[in-house]
Write a structure and sequence with these properties.
This protein is an alpha+beta fold. It contains 11 helices and 17 strands. Helix 5 packs across helix 7. The N terminus is likely disordered. This is AbiEi antitoxin C-terminal domain-containing protein.
Length: 304
């Protein structure tokens, strides 16, 4: 499969400089004064800061449509939201000395592991997940995997089946273990981090996107359904969980209401925030285990 390296890209008028000059679309003066260089011979208007999508399309133009966008950049093309604009563009193809900002991997890839998104050649969600699990640190990889699963619906079994094609792939066992941690129900990177902390410390697997009761707003970020422990990870700093009162402070009204609502159904709601530490997560959830009548121990729990 090949993608045309058109002179002008539809994202924000990204151009191959030599082609724009040869066709008369731009003059050297305009290219020099009004455009910024993203990659060798690839430019975009200087008035706009490049986004991740701009840089992805620029990389595709630079490769003349022969490189396959992979990794985090591929996840972003498939709809993942938690990828920074400054993330390196990963690409599968043999290129000598790729420019700064592009990571090229000379790896095997089958035709059915490639698709096209917005005119760009990109790995399928299944291959994208496999590459993320192999080439990135575990926590960073699972954050991307959760986001990719949310955006595409890719399943763990699909990725593991693709991994069967590459029995001699580097870090294959690590990749398989990482893929098994994927959960598309995670709402934010902070939820994923909390989930990984809990899974590392206790064998019980918290499920993302659990519903407490029947109310539409009764969903919580994570939950141990058998234990009736719910966990919400607020996308705010710890201090913002509370409101100041003349006699001290207490949870924000909506948090207090949800705690009381959960209690009506026999659940304990643990409220965390995006900066909750490892110790805070284990301490707060461990206390909930105690309150629900479970004896805490590393490696498991048991009913008192």
């Amino acid at each position: 499969m090949s993608v045309s390296s058109a002179t002008i890209c539809c994202v924000t008028d990204i151009v191959r400089g030599s082609e724009a000059l040869s066709t008369g679309a731009l003059t050297r003066g305009v290219l020099r004064s009004r455009y910024r260089r993203l990659l060798p011979d690839v430019y975009m208007p200087a008035t706009t800061a490049p986004t991740l999508m701009d840089r992805i399309h620029a990389a595709s133009i630079w490769s003349r449509g022969q490189g396959v966008i992979a990794g985090r950049a591929a996840a972003a093309l498939h709809g993942a939201r938690w990828i920074g604009d400054d993330a390196p563009i990963e690409m599968i193809r043999r290129f000598p000395r790729p420019p700064h900002g592009i990571i090229v991997r000379n790896e095997s890839i089958e035709p059915d592991e490639i698709c096209s998104v917005d005119g760009v050649q990109v790995t399928t969600p299944q291959r994208t997940a496999f590459d993320l699990a192999r080439h990135h640190p575990r926590v960073e990889a699972v954050i991307c995997l959760d986001d990719l699963a949310r955006a595409t619906g890719v399943e763990i079994d699909e990725v593991q089946a693709l991994a069967d094609r590459y029995p001699s792939a580097r870090l294959l066992d690590h990749a398989r273990d990482t893929v098994n941690l994927m959960d598309g129900g995670s709402r934010t990177p902070a939820v994923t981090r909390v989930r990984l902390i809990l899974r590392k410390h206790w064998p019980m697997v918290p499920r993302a996107g659990v519903r407490v009761g029947s109310a539409a707003w009764g969903f919580v970020d994570l939950g141990y359904e058998d234990l009736k422990i719910a966990i919400d990870v607020k996308d705010m700093d710890g201090v913002d969980l509370f409101v100041k009162l003349p006699y001290g402070s207490e949870y924000r009204p909506e948090i207090t209401h949800k705690i009381r609502y959960s209690k009506e159904f026999g659940w304990i709601l643990v409220v965390l925030h995006r900066q909750s530490t490892f110790g805070e997560v284990l301490g707060r959830v461990g206390l909930a285990l105690d309150q629900q009548g479970y004896e805490r121990r590393r490696g498991g729990t048991q009913r008192n």
